[in-house]
Amino acid sequence: MNAQHIDFPALSVYQRYKLMASLIVPRPIALVTTINAQGVVNAAPFSMFNMVGEDPPLVMVSVNHHNSQGRQKDTATNILANGQFVVHLPDEGLADAMHACATEAPDGVSELDLVGLATTPSRTLAVPCIATAPVAFECVLHEHLRNDSRHVFFGRVQWLRVREGLVDTDTWRVRLQDYFPVARFGASFYVRTR
Fold first, then answer.
1. What is the distance between the alpha carbons of residues 23 and 12, in angstroms, rounded to a whole number?
2. Could you tell me if 60 and 145 are in contact, meaning their C-beta atoms sit under 8 angstroms apart?
């Protein structure tokens, strides 16, 4: 096979991002809810996300340091302030609203209100769950890493909320015929899992 060789450190940060984000695909999407001190719920999607392990049960979410106005992202601010977040796995029915949550809401306004998504209380956290999400992992902050461009949050799963009938509790298997999560496929492209 002929190969193209690329000196990765010689590339700009943007060039590295474009290549990595378009080659490491498909990536699962976490629609993360957090809450600030005033009780405003923030919701934002992240495709730099995955499970890390089951003992302890950990998920990882990577969040840019700053938003387009140069301020720290609300997700990072809220997790650092109270150590709580909920990771939702959006399906096809939630995809448009999930994508719309990527916009920056005005201060004091929840993205969930802007896109018309209702919440339901979490079992173990102050942060609510998105009522229509097929999967919600209630997480407490287990570890926080910071590099030049990102916060990396490891969340310890405290509780799992799934759509009724999605999990067969006799076998502890997901009924995949009823589960259609969406994934990121570079740029603003998404893939279906049917």
1. 17
2. no
Q: Which two structure tokens, joined as six digits, stand for 65?
A: 């340091």
Q: Which helix (H) or strand (E) holds 64?
A: strand 57-64
Per the CB < 8 A criterion, the answer to whether 61 and 155 are in contact is yes
State the pLDDT at residue 12. Answer: 96
Amino acid at 35: I
Structure tokens at 190: 């998404």
Collapsing DSSP to helix, strand or coil, 50 comes out as strand
Q: Which CA distances in Å does 156 have to 18, 49, 64, 181, 183?
A: 30, 14, 20, 22, 22
Q: Report the pLDDT value the prediction gives residue 189, as an integer from 0 to 100.
A: 84
Q: Which domains does the chain have, with CATH numbers?
A: 24-163+171-187 (2.30.110.10)
Indicate yes or no: pTM above 0.70.
yes
Give the long-range contacts of residues 108-111, CB within 8 A, separation 24 or more: 108/38, 108/40, 109/40, 110/40, 110/41, 110/42, 110/43, 111/42, 111/43, 111/44
SS (H, E, C) 158-170: EEEEECCCCEECC
- Cα distance between residue 42 and residue 132, in whole Å: 16
User: Each residue of 4-13: pLDDT tens digit?
Assistant: 999 999 999 9
From the number of C-beta atoms within 10 Å of its C-beta (0-12, 13-18, 19+), residue 128 rates as: buried
Please give the residue that has the higher pLDDT: either 187 or 48: 48
